[in-house]
Amino acid sequence: MTSFDDMTTDDLRAACEEMRAEISRREAEVEARATVVAAVEEYAALRGVSVLAAWRALVPEGVQVPDEPEPEPIPDAPEYKQPTGAHDAYRVGDRVTFQGRVYEAVINAVVWSPLAYPQAWKEVR
Q: Which residues of 37-74 are buried (b: 16+ CB within 10 A; e: fewer)?
C-alpha cells in the first residue's frame, strides 16, 4: 500500500477523486450487467428457450458463446418426442423434458410441443 506521508494534500485529493471515479465506473458496470442479464432472461422466457440459446440469438456475429450443457435426464420426464398420431400422443399427466424444462400435459391427445402449443402444457420444473 502507498504511504500517504510522502503525498501532498493535492496528491491525496487527486487520488480520492480517481478512487471515486473508479467506484462510480464499477457500480455502473454492475448495474449495466444486471440490466443486460435481466433483458436476456426475459427474452428467453418469452421465446421459450434457454438463457444460453437467447444469448446465442442476441450476440453480435463473431462473438463466442459456450456450448449448451447437456441437461440431466429426469426419470419421470423423458425428452419430448414429436408424436406421429393419436396412438403416441401425450395424455393428461404425461411429463416431458423440452428445451431443458419439464412440462406436464394438461389435455389429452397432445401432439404439439410446449413451444408450438403452450396451452396444452404446464411447466413443472
A: eeebeebbeeebbbebbbbeeeeeeeeeeeeeeeeeee
